[in-house]
Design goal:
single chain; 483 residues; alpha/beta; TIM Barrel; Immunoglobulin-like; 3 domains; eight-stranded parallel beta sheet; four-stranded mixed beta sheet
Length: 483
Amino acid sequence: MLRQRQHQWTRVLLLPALVIASIFAMAASLNLAAHAEMATADPTGVMVPLYTYPGQTWDTVIQAKNANPAVPVVAIINPSNGPGSYDPNYASGITSLKQAGIIVLGYVFTGYGSRDAGSIESDINSYKNWYGVNGIFFDEMSNVAGQEGYYKNLSEYAKSQGLAMTVGNPGADTAASYIGTMDNIIIYENWGLPTSTYLAGWHTSYSKDNFAIIPYGVSSLDSSYVAAAAAYVKYIYITDDSLPNPWDSVPSYFGALVSAVNAADGNMNVNTNTNPNPNSTSTPAPVTQQAPEQSGTSSITVNSVDQNSAAINGYYTVLSQNGGVLQTGFTPVTFQPSAGQQYTIEVQDYGNYHFDHWADNGSTNRDRSISAIAGTSQVLTAVYSSAPLQSQVQPAVTVTSTDQNGNPITGYYTTLWQNGQQLQSGFSPASFTLNSGQTYEVAVADYGSYVFDHWSDGTTNRLHTITAQPGTLINLTAVYRTQ
């Protein structure tokens, strides 16, 4: 998670733990009961980066907490890539968060272990003295062996000041040697939902209390995924916001996310093979909602491959019927639906890979309708591409300059504006990144004997208005004449 201008953050989730005796009854036995008891005693929570000024976004978080008081909610506040200067609005906003039962962490950056510890301790003291936060969020945490002592000492210093909770964020997976340096470490901060393969692995040798994930760019909430991920991590946050700043808002489904965590805490379908030992090396099975048993034997297997037909596993897959989710899993996955009925299979994207087409019919629709046939095992293969989608390409504008004969002339001061404020500057040829759907103005300045005459599209106003569209790269040429 980079600083305020880039950030990546985290959200909480935990395994739901209500034993559904009517379904699993005797099969669950002591193992299931022990796991359910552990989950209830250690509920999942939501960790939300509040990289916004106190106001409506903070109120949204408070409202979700009030609606789900049993869900632990952690909010990370970031006034200015750290505590900045004292702000009474932050003080009152933090008080409101704490009064609602929300744990508040103050943001500090560590430069991946390069920042002076004394400067960080000064930031910690400011958070304590000005705002009375509950803990500290250490961003830009190293995940390379050798800095464990640095982070352990910072965590211990915060706790010595009465700040009870510490979280570290390397923005990616960490090394096992960092377990215990912080109370919790974010192991995923990226676009799209992490797979079960990513969440499992070496992490399952430790308590899930050590881990959190904060995926962004997720357009809609899947409650069954929340329940599945809860088996692996203590905290989860999911948002539909995306780069360059996924943390300058909360998603429209934030309230539903907290409610999904609440349901997971009290109603998780627990796999009967789950080991109640939080340090067990066994891999938790993804939580699924089982379709009711019906007559007729049929199965549908979903595989995933890249465009070279090489297997790539761990892609989240959903079996649904009439809009209701029946089963979920990670590729390769096999579902056993009732024969003679119509279902929908949907596969989801992850990381750099996105769904491209189905191998058997070439359809580019990720929602695949299929009929379950008695006595038949059907196999579907989803083909993924690593080429970026246009909608994932960051919009940008490039400004070049020429004379009236079309000859390039370079070095002309160029600025990017929005709502009367200058955002970026450079010298032609200059490129600026944009936020999709927003409107900007681009301006060029005169120099020497050359003065601006017009833009290549005929516009004579040197302040040129542009609107950024998803995946659009805008090219503007400023034409100069001599005085």
